[in-house]
Amino acid sequence: MTTQLKVNIRKVEAKKVRPLRHSELRKGQDFSTTSYIEDYEVGTFHMACIVDEKIVTCASYYPEKSIKIKSKRAYRLRGMSTDSNFQRKGYASDLMQESFKELKKRDCDMVWCNARLGAVDFYKSVGFKITGEIFDIAEIGPHYYMYKEIS
């Protein structure tokens, strides 16, 4: 007999996603590095995929113009992370699909991010494209600028 997991994707408060940001994106760094200035700004929202009451995937979005892609109402994706025990099970893709719906409700026409190399294929799988060359973010590593049009 298999057990059915209870999965819920919804908006949450910033403080709820910080522990996952820390364990997956900021290993070995101070917990304070998981707080972004934009976390509490008007227009910011945080999405979480919750499996049996545990946040296994999260992402944060806030209005920020792109310097590389022309848009009328861009949002930036930041802090996307998935618990290593729950990767490659579809939770992050499901979270992104729900996020795109929320972005559309907010009249967003484009979402962009700085993607770590290990996440590039994932972002491509949900419709993001690369523009520009690889670049380095201090203490984090190499990234690509990626974007997706929201329609």
Tell me the distance between the termini. 42 Å
> Mind summarizing the main beta sheet?
7 strands, mixed
Specify the helix fraction band: 10-25%
Strand segment tally: 7
Number of H/I helices? 3
User: Unreliable stretches, pLDDT < 50, 5 or more residues?
Assistant: none
Q: Assign the CATH class.
A: Alpha Beta
Supply the CATH architecture: 3-Layer(aba) Sandwich
CATH topology name, in short, is Aminopeptidase
What does this structure look like?
This protein has helices at residues 14-25, 91-105, 120-125, and strands at residues 7-12, 45-51, 54-63, 74-82, 110-116, 129-137, 141-149. It is of the alpha+beta class and 151 residues long. A seven-stranded mixed sheet has the order 1-2-3-4-5-7-6, with helices on both faces. The model has no long low-confidence stretch (mean pLDDT 93).
Structural topology:
Layout lengths: L6 E6 L1 H12 L19 E7 L2 E10 L10 E9 L8 H15 L4 E7 L3 H6 L3 E9 L3 E9 L2
Parallel strand pairs: 4-5
Antiparallel strand pairs: 1-2, 2-3, 3-4, 5-7, 6-7
Salient structural properties:
alpha+beta, seven-stranded mixed beta sheet, 151 residues, 7 strands, Aminopeptidase, globular, single chain
In brief:
The protein is α+β, with helices and mostly antiparallel strands and 151 residues long. 22% of the residues lie in helices and 38% in strands. The protein has a seven-stranded mixed beta sheet, sandwiched between helices.
